[in-house]
Amino acid sequence: MVSWSTDELRPHERFEHWREVRGRHLAGVTMDVDRDKRGIFKGRFSSAAVGGAMLSEIQATAYDVSRSPADINRVSSDSLRISYLVSGPGWCDTPAGRSYLAEGSISTSYSDLPFAMAQRPGNMHVRLLRIPLARLDALGRAARDYHIEPLAQEDRYTRLIRASFLSLAEDAARLDAAEADRAVTDLAQLVLLARGSVRRNLPESREAVRSGHLTAARRIIARNLHRQDLGVESLAKMLAVSIRQVHAMFEPTGMSCHRTITAMRLDEARRLLVLTPERPVTDIAFACGFDSMATFYRAFRKAEEATPGDFRQALLRDVA
Hints:
Layout: E1 2-5, H1 11-27, E2 30-32, E3 43-50, E4 53-61, E5 64-67, H2 69-74, E6 79-87, E7 90-94, E8 97-101, E9 106-110, E10 115-119, E11 123-132, E12 149-150, H3 156-171, H4 177-194, H5 203-223, H6 232-239, H7 243-250, H8 257-275, H9 281-287, H10 293-304, H11 308-319
Helix pairs in contact: 3-4, 3-5, 4-5, 6-7
């Protein structure tokens, strides 16, 4: 894990340091910002290896950035690049044309093609994943033609890529090596599908789609635990798939969709029992989506061999 910021530098040194260390030598890009804004520039950067790829996060005062042939010759990475723009929209020019990168957009590209990007005034926040093409074998060759291009927001593959990318970014530290490698491989396959470089009927494509749907389903469950109507039918509607597909995507996990929802509700209930000791158990049960106290107590006893109240008291005693 590499992490650094401009906080310890004097204001007039921050942008120059960022431009030379982060831009020229690490990323191989050319950066610029108006002179009158250099004194207020701030930047923070972190990067970590995950599944044979490099996951980075950049938060900074907005600046213009470009990658010229000279930059590419100086720092080449031969990678598939996936970018999630949290904030800081702007225009991007490539030899293939101009595109607008909106907040919340996912864009994909080959790392060693030129571009010029102009950011709007304010701050920028972006998450990047660089996947070396060497780990994609022959399939990765098609990515060498990918100029920066935002994926269509409502495309089925874009939704899966977004869910898979955000889950990887948030869970990277908790994944073991095999899980991280699988997540990166499936994400790369989804990008190749989205850009029309591989066929949908390939075994790798079908597995990537199934994995992407499962990841998206889990994120939907986590955001909707409070809904008592959360189940196979509602998930199918939100994922725009059939009920049969929802059942099928959970089969390899060894847990049905219903059991997965219950397990995630119990995890959230455990968390709230400890973090909000003053909150009534009844409130927590219904906040986690259980339709009755009887259902909640029955599920909790089965999982913990204790009532929610006893579980809370035992943990609080341990903490004390």
